[in-house]
Write a structure and sequence with these properties.
alpha/beta; 8 helices
């Protein structure tokens, strides 16, 4: 499969990947999390000859539906599943920051992955993204908007337009390394780059975390590539995205750009 073009060329040798950690933020995903973890480790078993040890870190915001307890029971029989329980719900970005920091501090992976826990990202693509990180990429995005990628045909026209507009807006204001799907949340990131980013300084709690993190990594020299994915419909439960989240995301992206301009002027 063809990777999208890259704006810069990386000359370092191929990275030897030993461990990867998938960070899975959850809130009320009791109906999905077991199925998601089963699918992840089914792929790990199928790709065990790669020598990449796969971990899954579930970051749960104290879900009232018992998601955390399901993960605890799962981790008792799979030592590569970990739970980070937070005691209040304060946004997807905050959950990712907490999860990434925890993974870097305790698991020391070569790659950290972002992935939804609701079944919209297909675990079949996990190793495609992991294997894409190397000599010519620090971040590999599972992209809906490169050739071969797609969104569900069941999406209403307004949702397709909003998604496209959000990506264009983020690309206009931030440095996204040429990525067409800079708001997508299915990514493999070289932790050597991630460790250069001051995650706490991003000051993003919600969905704007996706393009803002990408911008921060690119500004630290990261090379971004995209692989096409087929984005799936949520099988169970309801989407957490609301219209107010979109407006907040737009504000945070603009605020990130404004703070940068003000910093330059100082």
């Amino acid at each position: 499969m063809t990777l999208s073009s890259v704006l810069r060329t990386k000359t370092t040798s191929q990275k030897h990947i030993r461990t990867a950690c998938i960070v899975l933020p959850t809130y009320n995903e009791a109906s999905n999390i077991t199925r998601t973890l089963d699918s992840i480790f089914r792929q790990a078993s199928l790709h065990k000859t790669t020598g990449v040890r796969l971990h899954a870190l579930v970051v749960d915001d104290d879900s009232p539906d018992g998601t955390a307890e399901i993960v605890r029971r799962y981790s008792a029989r799979n030592k590569n599943v970990h739970l980070l329980l937070r005691h209040r719900k304060n946004g997807l970005g905050a959950a990712y920051i907490a999860g990434m920091q925890h993974a870097l501090r305790t698991l020391h992976p070569d790659i950290i992955m972002q992935m939804d826990s609701d079944g919209q990202h297909n675990p079949v693509d996990i190793y495609r993204l992991i294997n894409g990180v190397g000599a010519d990429a620090d971040i590999v995005i599972g992209s809906r908007y490169v050739r071969g990628g797609s969104v569900p045909h069941t999406w209403a026209l307004y949702r397709k337009i909003l998604s496209r507009a959000a990506n264009r807006y983020a690309r206009l204001l931030l440095d996204t390394g040429g990525a067409k799907d800079c708001t997508g949340g299915f990514r493999a990131i070289d932790t050597a780059v991630l460790r250069k980013v001051e995650l706490n300084e991003l000051r993003i709690e919600g969905y704007a975390f996706m393009p803002v993190l990408l911008d921060a990594c690119v500004r630290k020299g990261a090379i971004v590539r995209e692989l096409p994915i087929r984005f799936l419909d949520r099988a169970r439960g309801e989407s957490k995205m609301r219209l107010r989240d979109m407006f907040r995301g737009a504000f945070h992206i603009a605020d990130t750009r404004m703070r940068r301009i003000m910093h330059r002027d100082q």
